[in-house]
Amino acid sequence: MTNHKKIAYRGSIFYFRDSANFANLPRADKTAGKEHYVYHEDGILIVEAGKVKDVGSYADMKKKIDHIKIVDYTGKLITPGFIDTHQHAAQSAIVAAYGEKLLGWLDQYVFPSESTYRDPHIAKKELNFFLDQLLMNGTTTAVSYGPLFYEATDIFFEELNRRKMRFITGNIMMDRNSPDTLCLSTQENYDIAKKLIKKWHNKGRLSFCLSPRFAISCSDKLLELCGSLKKEHPDLYIQTHLDENVNEIKEVKKLFPWSKNYLDVYDHFGLNDKRSVFGHCIHMTDPELEMLKKSHAVISWCPISNNFLGSGLFNIENVTKYTTNITLGSDWGGGNTLSMFAVMDEAYKVSMLQNYKLASMVRWFFATLGAARALQIDDKVGNFEIGKEADFIVVDPAATLYMRYRREKVTDIFELLFILMTLGCDPNIHATYIYGEPAYIKKEKQAVTVKVAHHKEKMTHK
Ligand SMILES: [Zn+2]
Fold first, then answer.
1. How far apart are CA 372 and CA 388, in angstroms?
2. Distance, CA 356 to ligand 1 centroid (Å)?
3. For the whole model, what pTM was predicted?
């Protein structure tokens, strides 16, 4: 139930104003662009009926909170929840899988594991575990690939609806180049999507996303059917993979010999749109970037997964010459963490390898308001402007011994964000609020009992 009583949260507060964009955020000169974000070292956020009612410095708000319940988070940072634009909800079991690049990794690890979601009991257990992990990491909204099967994806929507999360997802689709256990017919893929759109699209805070896995595992007919669903429902989102791996690109060329380039395949079937979210975009050619610029499609940059699978380096300097519709994704499954702190950290390192300094503010923007804007939900989430939905996180910058030590030396918000992005992970998320309600509160020092599986085979050294 939504709490209709006003509650005031006290702590440091940081968010981007609606006026912020990629070009006007502070970079090397910390004074420029200050008017595009808000930072109150001692601030108050007032929430009522799931929405932001008021926000300001404690000194200014003192009188307004006389008769309101106050939750005191002094010493912690209250900030909008993260938005992760690329993740696979059905891949928790294969995170940290050794030794393969994209195509081998899919065959050896991903496909066998995803096929277990045919059993609704397994699906329910695994998907709830995934969502608990997501909230523990401070992610409040995501664009996510659901499982392949109807029951499992229906369960996923059910759980998201129960948790009141603003979420964009759909059944992952594939009808070729995959094992029998996971390969559905073209018609089955279509029917599942059709049924789920009817049941869940625009229900509560949920949106449906057409999710063809990637061109290699989708026939022309399936992509054509995705295009027809998009025509029927123009406000559907689309997500797929694009230019992730060089062998993948060669394979796409073989399967679609008529195409000018990889993006042309999706474009041909009506799947390159301002509501399309393309994962990776590492090996983009200039004509493809021109096409993205025209369609206003969204890029989901997944640096952790790109490094783990040895896929390549996203060239932000070049891409931003064409588009700034850039967001960040964990690519959970290929990525080994759901922590957006870690994703922002990796984005920095990938940029440094290419002699490009990626400012703290820019990365934080990509993971919050920038993503909300790219997904066209910035009238609802992404910052604390009055009336927006109150999805927020409470970050503890001193969650570990070293971070407490380092925190004491921090002098401004720039440095605070930088140390969080460089050193932070799930222990730094103290609480996650969804629509004004606590969805996760960190328990102090849990004792964890680990069950170790004893394998009969001898361990081999990898
Ligand atoms: Zn992916």
1. 12
2. 25
3. 0.95
